[in-house]
Amino acid sequence: MSVAGARLRRRSHPSRRASEGAIGMPQSPSICPTLLYADAKAAIRQLTEAFGFAEHAVYENEDGGVVHAELTYGNGMVMLGSKGTGSQFDKLMEGAGPTGVFVHVDDVDAHHGRAVEHGADIVMPPTDQDYGSRDYMVRDLEGHIWSFGTYTPGAAEAS
Fold first, then answer.
1. Helix ranges, 26-138 (H)
2. Which residue from 69, 136, 141 is spatially nearest to 108, judged by alpha carbons?
3. Which of 105, 111, 133, 159 could potentially form a cystine with 151 if both were Cys, beta carbons 3.0 to 4.6 Å apart?
4. CATH 3.30.720.110 at 98-159, yes or no
5. Please, which residues have CB within 8 angstroms of residue 45's CB and are 6 or more apart in sequence?
6. Where is the VOC domain (predicted)?
7. What is the CATH number of domain 1-97?
8. Does the pLDDT at position 154 exceed 70?
């Protein structure tokens, strides 16, 4: 999602400490899932309120559409925006369908409880997996599947 050349209004900004990286986290992530929503503002509300993400940056166009947003969780980040902004990414993603995203959380049951309190569409309750993780899954407001669990990608290879 390009923000270059557009007349944008930044709606939020990070609070940084000197020890934090360029995006306000200890280390910038190498991979950021990028999602488009018909109602990006509602998605941001759900991701922050129900799932505990923090707004890092939200850029809106003159019509109030979200052309680029960055939400953080732990040392990870997801980028998102509104469908219909006319950006190259928006055009390429047309008809691409929902996406799935996995987020590591330390306490699946507490995280699940928070999501339930905010009316999240739970599609799989907290479940112990054969590979040692405890996960639950939700469908967000526009059909993307979010998995939250104790699995730490890459940890098995690192040990």
1. 40-49, 88-93, 108-117
2. 136
3. 133
4. yes
5. none
6. 28-151
7. 3.10.180
8. no
